[in-house]
Each structure stands twice: as C-alpha cells, then as structure tokens.
Write a structure and sequence with these properties.
The structure is a single chain. It is globular, with a radius of gyration of 25 Å. The two termini are 43 Å apart. It has 4 helices and 35 strands. The strands form 6 sheets. A 12-stranded antiparallel beta barrel has the order 13-14-16-17-18-19-22-23-24-25-26-27. Among the domains are: 243 residues, no CATH class; 91 residues, Sandwich (Immunoglobulin-like); 41 residues, no CATH class. It is mostly beta strands and 615 residues long. Helices cover 5% and strands 41% of the residues. One of its GO terms (biological process) is polysaccharide catabolic process. Keywords: Membrane, Transmembrane, Transmembrane helix. InterPro entries: Dockerin_dom_sf.
Length: 615
C-alpha cells in the first residue's frame, strides 16, 4: 500500500480493541447493548464505564508470553498508561473447580504490571498447570471509579474454552455468490461478488496455502470498488481489477507470536466486463501484484486469525509493509519489506447471526499509522463474518478519508466517523456483502435444553443490585446465547454468547424503585430455546423527611456549555450523558447532551463538550 492508503485495491481483509479499532469499548462508551435479533454480540460489549482489554493469544503454553492491549477511551481514541487491578477467574482444564480473586495485578516476579501506551507483555513461567482463565481489569488508582473492563479469556496448556477458527474460516471448493451494495456515493448500487478457492499448493517459501480469487459483476462491486474519492485519487482502471490472494494455512514460523492464517500477497488481473463472474474469462491478463510483509518479526504478513481464539483476541502491528511490482516479474521474486510501515490490526468476537447461529467475526483495520486518531491519515475497517462449517457469510467495509483529500461527505476521517471507533456494528457501511448461494448449510441437531436462574440477593431495599447465575442443562451442548430482561418488559438488558453451560453476571440489574419485579432469562442453542423467571422484591427505605428531587435545567449560574447535569463543571459525567443520548432526537436540550439545542444529539454536541471539558 502506498503511504496514501490502500483503500484502492487490495481487499486485504482489514482491519477491531479499537479505534476497535479495538473497537470495542470506551471510557464511558456503552458500545451499545445489542438488541437486534439477528446480530448479537457476546458479553464484553456490555461494559458501560470501563477500560477495554484485549489479549493477543487464546492458547498459551508454559512457559510462554502474550500481549495485553488496554484502551482508556475508544473515542476519542486513547491508550491507557498505568497500573491495573485484576479480577481473575481460574478454572481447571475442564472448566471446573474455579476460584476468583481480585487485587493489584502483579507479574510472575511479584512486580506490578505496568501498561505503557496501551500495551504490556505478560510472561507465563514454566510449571503453570493447565487452566482456563478469565480476566477483567480496572485502573489502579481509579479516580473515576470505572467498572471492570471487557472480559478476556485464554487457556494455558489446553484448548478447552477456546474456538477453533479453522472450523469457521472454511475455504470451500465450490464458488460462493454474494449479493452486494455500494453506498459510497450516497445511493446504493447493487452488484454480485463471487469468491472461490483453488486447490492447496506450495507457495513461495514452500508453505502450503491456497489462492483465494474474487470476481464482481460491475466496477462498483467488491473488491476494488469504484468510489468518488478513488475516481479523483487513483489512475483510470483501478475499479476494473479482480484479485487473487495468496493465503497461507495455519502455521507458526520461527519467531512468530502465534499460529496464524495469513495473506502473503495479491495478484491483480484485468476484469472482463462482458463475462465478469466467469473465472475462465477473467484472470488472464495480470496488471499488477504486491507482496505483503512485516518489519516486526513477531507478526507475519497480513495475519488473518490465529488457529485458536478466546474472548477479546486482538493483535496490532504498526510495522506492516509491502512492495508492488509490474506484472512481468515473478511473484515470488518481489521483496516484501520495501514500502514504509503502516498499520494493521485484527480482532475477533462471537456473534449470533440469525439462521447461521454461531459466527466468528474477524474485524480488520488497515491504513496509515495513527489513522485511528489522526484526521490527516487514511484507512479502512472491514468486518468478516464466518459461520461454523460454512465459511464467509457476510462482509462490511467502511473507508476513512483524510481531510486533505477534499470534501467527501460520505467518507470522513476515522475520528469523525462513529463506524470506526464507536459502533460495534456498522450503521452506515460503504460496502456490504451477504451470502446468497454456495455449499449447503449444515443441518441443526435436535435436542432440548433447560434454564435455571438464581439471583443474589432476590430481596432487599432500593437501590438493589443483584448478581445473576444461569445454569443450562439438556442434550444440546454449547455454544449458548444467554439473554436477560431485568423487568420482563421485552427488552434484553444483557446478552452474551458463551461456550459454557453456566454464566454469572455481576450487578446485572439495579432496581431503584420499590416494587415486585420479574426477572426473565432465556437461553438459545441449536435452534431451541428455554426460559426461566424469578421474582425480585425491592423494598422501600423509610425516611423521616422526603428529600425533594432536583432536575438540572440549562439556566442559572451553573449553565455552561457542555455541563449536562448542571453541577458547575464539565467532566466525564456530562460525556456519559451525551453518549447515552447520542443519535437520539430530544426536546430536553442540555439535560440530554444536546448542547446546541438542535433537538438532536450528535457530534456537534460532543465538540462543545470537548471544547469546554475541565472548565
């Protein structure tokens, strides 16, 4: 990719911990509780007011090491620096006999773990028993009283509790057809894309891999789509190229951080406009080619995913590289580390996606270094959804244009587009693909499941915070989709995708008004669901004299721009109020974060808060 950006071609699977990039959670950013029946993310997205935690390995040995990534805020993008408190739940290799502890995070030598600019390397000494580990973190000290972070899961000496990505990243022998839409001009242009794989063969260094080829029905299609900004920035014909990607199968070469599937390079061919979806009529005239590399020896070229992942897997490489050559040179003779460094990130999470059931989403960020926070840099985010035993079923792409490129209202810098750093699921992708035809889908296995809920406490005075434990039994095994509705009003306050038959959620519900409530739970697996409900009795606290309520108003001596709660200061509480109402229509003005009284809470209001923060 040129230093300008590689939004032009190379699909390069790009890429989420965040702007997810990390893309996962912000200081007071809710990362939305997902309530869409066909698009449900696992539990880490539920953190409202905490750090974002990512971990670079799912499967670890003893001795070994891994990298943790910690974000203080996702938007504006801010890496954390400091010490951490650690809550860790450690179970044996079978997921039983668990113990949970909390305290200052110390390394194996007894020294506090220090996070510098968002990351630290953690060493696992020899002799550690086989275990399944779940981690959460908080700042130490914690002056803003942040909650526990997103949850990270990894295993030592076992693969129990992990996901085998090779069961999802399927490369079928039959071509798969996708329906697509290009919305880069503000008006949808429909197209079709076909993706296929050639037979396994040795690549340049003898490693086994496969060629992945992509075709599209028209220039606006994916990959290398026609866009308004590329029409100005790129040479003619950029949108009439179809690629062959060199994918290397799972391997861990000397020095690599983990066992990865990678993209080694791409060969671009002239598209046949008269027969665009026929492989024999395309891939005849090579136009250009690029080899991918990495100046950081820990990471391979364009890693796609490791073989095994736990929750919150994330790897970032700011030293990705590449080199391009004309079509005449043999592909394997192209150097890989010629162009300046740029940024490549990949992360994963588990999604419940309608009829496909469990889906691994691999989220990629690619672009110029610092494009996540610098509006003078270009980049893109691509989300790839892989269904178990099926392969790629959905793809979404959003591009980020630097301000220097000119006025493109539909292509903003990352730090001005909520689909880069804030939204767990893209709200306005430029490109979408959905699987419409391919190899047959697997048949669901029949069976039954039962759900049993336990609340602690189930009665008490307001405000009452409860922890909930859900246990699943039956003939259908994991993974399970857990859903909880604190007041039985039809809205799921919490949803999580999990591979164990027991789930505990701390402080799931907070009841502030005395009353009797029904807490409803549901679990889904294998096309079957089970429900349970328990009663919560919230009692009133007798008071001698009622305390009059106070409703902040945007008038009086404390009325200052950005001060939503009228406490005479503009701080993160006001940001939380803005974030809670972001994207909503309101007539409450400043009380809902609508600081310019436009009746809509948007980025303009954020700019007002940011300008006055600390006053």
């Amino acid at each position: 990719m040129s230093k300008k950006v590689d939004t032009n071609s190379n699909f390069r699977f790009i890429a989420s911990l965040a702007a997810t990039f990390f893309l996962s959670l912000t200081l007071i950013n809710s990362v939305y509780l997902v309530r869409w029946a066909k698009n449900i993310r696992r539990g880490r997205a539920q953190v409202i007011n905490g750090l974002w935690l990512g971990i670079s390995k799912g499967r670890l040995s003893s001795p070994d090491s891994y990298i943790i990534y910690v974000l203080d805020a996702k938007w504006p993008y801010q890496q954390y620096t400091g010490n951490l408190d650690l809550r860790k739940k450690i179970c044996d290799a079978n997921g039983a006999n668990c113990t949970t502890t909390e305290g200052l995070w110390l390394d194996s030598q007894g020294n506090p773990v220090f996070i510098s600019n968002g990351l630290a390397t953690i060493n696992i000494p020899s002799g550690i028993p086989n275990t399944i580990n779940e981690y959460w973190v908080k700042p130490n000290p914690n002056p803003r009283s942040l909650d526990w972070s997103t949850e990270a899961l990894f295993s030592i000496g076992t693969t129990n509790g992990l996901y085998d990505v090779s069961q999802y990243f399927i490369k079928p022998s039959e071509e798969t057809t996708y329906s697509g839409e290009n919305n880069t001009s503000g008006q949808n242009v429909s197209f079709q894309t076909k993706i296929g794989y050639e037979a396994t063969a040795a690549d340049c260094d003898g490693s086994l891999g496969q060629i992945m080829y992509l075709m599209k029905s028209r220039p606006e299609g994916y990959p290398n789509p026609k866009t308004p900004w590329k029409d100005i920035m790129m040479p003619s014909g950029y949108d009439r190229l179809v690629p062959k990607y060199h994918i290397l199968n799972w391997q861990k070469k000397t020095g690599w951080h983990d066992e990865y599937a990678t993209i080694y390079g791409v060969e671009n061919y002239q598209m046949n406009l008269n027969s665009p979806l026929n492989k024999n009529d395309n891939f005849n005239t090579k136009i250009s080619q690029t080899r991918y590399g990495s100046r950081d020896s820990m990471f391979p070229p364009h890693y796609l995913a490791p073989k095994w992942i736990g929750w919150s897997w994330d790897v970032q490489n700011s030293r990705a590289s590449e080199a391009s050559r004309s079509a005449q040179l043999a592909f394997c003779n192209i150097p890989a580390n010629e162009n300046p460094d740029y940024y490549w990130e990949a992360d994963s999470d588990l999604i419940y996606l309608g009829d496909y059931g469990e889906v691994i989403r691999l989220k990629y960020y690619e672009g110029e270094n610092n494009f996540l926070s610098d509006d003078s840099k270009a980049g893109k985010r691509e989300d790839w959804y892989f269904a178990k035993d099926v392969g790629l079923v959905k793809l979404e792409v959003v591009y980020f244009c630097p301000l220097s490129w000119g006025n493109f209202p539909n292509c903003l810098p990352c730090n001005q587009n909520s689909d880069c750093a804030i939204n767990e699921f893209m709200k306005a992708p430029h490109i979408t693909l959905n699987r419409v035809q391919g190899p047959p889908l697997p048949t669901p296995t029949p069976g039954w499941i039962q759900l049993d809920l336990t609340a602690r406490p189930s009665t008490g005075t307001a405000p009452l915070k409860i922890d909930l434990t859900a246990n699943v039994s039956g003939t259908i095994g994991p993974p399970y989709v857990y859903r909880f509705d604190c007041t039985n009003d039809g809205t799921w306050e919490y949803q999580e995708f999990k591979t164990t038959n027991s789930l505990t959620v701390f402080q799931l519900c907070t009841y502030t008004t005395p009353d009797k409530y029904t807490l409803h739970g549901r679990v889904e697996a294998g096309g079957t669901e089970a429900n349970d409900a328990i009663s919560i009795d919230v009692l009133a606290v007798p008071t001698a004299t009622p305390t009059p309520s106070f409703t902040p108003t945007p008038t009086g001596p404390c009325a200052k721009p950005g001060d939503a709660n009228a406490d005479c200061k503009v701080d993160f509480i006001d940001y939380a109020i803005w974030r809670l109402h972001f994207g909503q229509t309101t007539t409450n003005g400043i009380r809902d974060g609508d600081f310019n009284n436009s009746n809509f809470v948007d980025f303009v209001d954020y700019a007002i808060w940011r300008l006055n923060f600390g006053t």
